[in-house]
Amino acid sequence: MKDLGHGANVEPMARMYNKNPKDIIDFSSNINPNVIQGLEEYILEGLQESRSYPDIKYTNLRNNISQYIDVRPEFIIPGNGATEIIYLLMKSIDKRIAILNPTFSEYERSARLNNLDVINLNLDESNEFEIDLNNIKENINKFDSLFVCNPNNPNGKVKNLEKLLDIIVDNNKLLIVDETFMEFVEEEEKYSLVKYVEKYPNLFILKAVTKFFGLPGIRLGYGLTSNNDIIEKIYNYKEPWTINSFADTLSNYIFKDQKYIEDSKEYYIDERNFMLSELKSINSIHVYDTDTNFILIRLNDKRAKEIKVELLREGNILIRDASNFIGLDDRYIRIAIKSHKENELLIRHMKKLLGD
Amino acid sequence: MKDLGHGANVEPMARMYNKNPKDIIDFSSNINPNVIQGLEEYILEGLQESRSYPDIKYTNLRNNISQYIDVRPEFIIPGNGATEIIYLLMKSIDKRIAILNPTFSEYERSARLNNLDVINLNLDESNEFEIDLNNIKENINKFDSLFVCNPNNPNGKVKNLEKLLDIIVDNNKLLIVDETFMEFVEEEEKYSLVKYVEKYPNLFILKAVTKFFGLPGIRLGYGLTSNNDIIEKIYNYKEPWTINSFADTLSNYIFKDQKYIEDSKEYYIDERNFMLSELKSINSIHVYDTDTNFILIRLNDKRAKEIKVELLREGNILIRDASNFIGLDDRYIRIAIKSHKENELLIRHMKKLLGD
Fold first, then answer.
1. Which tens digits make up the pLDDT trace of B125-150?
2. CA torsion B164→B167→B168→B169, rounded to 10°?
3. Residues B50, A218: C-beta atoms closer than 8 Å
4. Which residues from A are below 8 Å from B53, CB to CB?
5. A56, A62, A110, best to mutate vs chain B, most B CBs in 10 Å
6. Quick one: which H or E segment has residue A48?
7. B290: Cα within 13 Å, side-chain hemisphere
């Protein structure tokens, strides 16, 4: 497989630097370090279910998601991770797609593999990667769909997209919002566009389940839209049985665990404050504000590649070299917010390597 | 989701006939009723692994499969079930594909969704669905690839494909063989073409893992080829992280469980003999010979739809109405070979409904 340039490549990095993969602390992928209580029991229930095929229509899974987010089950398209839905969506929309960069590279890859015309627009780096609405309006006739990630990977600052949605609706375009990291946001209800899904067929929202719930290896995500034309096209292309029985079964429990959800939100509020304040005390870096579970940093005097190797060698810490994001360069790194103890370790090593 | 016409649709059928899905005995999908020992422990290990992303290159998984089937890891393409590989393959081969019917409908669906030209050729129903080599030769200039399932779904009789492979190699075409049900065959080594993968780049083999190992909800399959052009094209299209951590972890154990593998083979030899001899005693049906874990039956005096409803109503038994396979009609049904007790129950109900 070609290197797609993502984080979480612990094993090859460990091999390259003669480390045991088990010793590496992975700050390169953005996963909640906490999981719900009772998980083992639910997984063993999933094991029983896995002895037959999952329901090809995933009726129960869609009902569980429906109750969680208050969107009708027929507007919910479950996937083998959000990735499956991204790729299906690209088969199901009109030819010209604009993508707001820097952002997750799979949007562009999936668009190009499905022969879409990609227009790369830029977020305003000098203003916390704000969306430039005038720029969108100027380019409105050049695209059919606009893809935005909110909070955006790699910078993590949540944006209010209501004005953007108005522009898209007024011009009868499609707004695609990847809200994979929205559940980490303090005022989620204010920023999430899920509440507009049933109202506007011009909206398609992507959600990952297993990042916030700390289980990315289980693979579960979904798409939300009331656009029947897109739903029909997606199901025309969708492969059968893509979601495994563990993800299917777990949906009976994870979305109802209010305590886990609230505790995780609280945890990230505290830990973001801690990390941002500690990192901002380092003079030789610029720390971007974040509302989610990762932080983008621009180095003043070092290259991303260098500090990545230094942190791995000296601290067994793997960070994300963010230089391959469109619009960023070799000064950018991205780090996850992990357990408090691990975060402290990272801060200690960063201060040692970069000075206070 | 549109009805794709597969078996295993227990829940909608149960709802339609006011049954509890848990009470239905599913003879419509072809799954080994046995599983390996120690499964719970391995699954809980998989749960730990699922807290981070699976290795994007699935190096360990490919090595485990490599040891099991003695094919080099770089020729192994793991998938979220064999289904993922079927769909990727259809993006990666030349325009014209011939399919030998009746067979699994996803081959044609995946080919058409990827804009391939499909040529449907027929197996010889009057001769145990034998492959007509003269017919292949006559049509050889009409296709680039030939797709065959061996043992074929829905009839289950294994074929020796060596002469067919010779024809394909001589004409520099591609032979695609779905060996999903090959592990159930008594003389697997004799019939499987895996031994030719490294020799002939004209060969692509599909394998499902979780049917023989009784865990279809875990989702694991793979493709095998030494055709570097196809491998490169598949990885060009392949989505990242499609295989979940449970499947990845389980690969450390299932392929090494010789006792399970041998016991399952023995079990199916005995149970096939039992089922075939009992079914052949029913005068009003024609029973096709099988080498795998399902049996195709042609009814003389009844329609498939009728007996399907009768078995469900009276015996809580769900069978596969096989009338939607290309080349079959409304007289055909397919039944799985399940546990001995369940098989006895099916036989009893069939005899009651169809006479001795």
1. 999 999 999 999 999 999 999 999 99
2. 120
3. yes
4. 8, 29, 31, 216-217
5. A56
6. helix A39-49
7. 33
Instruction: Specify the pLDDT at position A15.
Output: 87
pLDDT band of residue B12 (cuts 50, 70, 90) is confident
Rounded to whole angstroms, the Cα distance separating B253 from B43 reads 11
pLDDT-based confidence at residue A291 (cuts at 50, 70, 90): very high
* pLDDT tens readout for residues A118-131: 999 999 999 999 99
CA A118, CA B226: separation in Å to the nearest integer? Answer: 34
Q: What is the pLDDT of residues B286-300, one digit of tens each?
A: 999 999 999 999 999
Query: How far apart are the C-alpha atoms of B75 and B204, rounded to whole Å?
Result: 10
Q: What type of residue is B315?
A: G
Q: How far is CA A72 from CA A13, A65, A183, in A?
A: 43, 9, 19
CA distances (Å), origin B198, targets A8, B69, B221, B241:
32, 12, 19, 26
Q: State the ipTM, two decimals.
A: 0.94
Best interface-test mutation with A: which of B28, B244, B251, B253 has the largest number of A CBs within 10 A? B244
Contact B90, B113 (CB under 8 A): yes
Phi, psi of A84 (to 5 degrees): -55, -40
Residue B1 has pLDDT above 70, yes or no: no
Which tokens belong to B39?
A: 């499964």
Task: Kindly identify which residue of chain B lies nearest to residue A112, measuring between CA atoms.
Answer: B237
Q: Per residue in B262-289, pLDDT tens?
A: 999 999 999 999 999 999 999 999 999 9
Domain architecture of chain A: domains with CATH: 10-30+258-354 (3.90.1150.10), 52-256 (3.40.640.10)
CA distances from A324 to A14, A118, A126, A290, B212 (A): 21, 18, 19, 20, 43
**Residue A23 forms contact with B (CB below 8 Å):** no
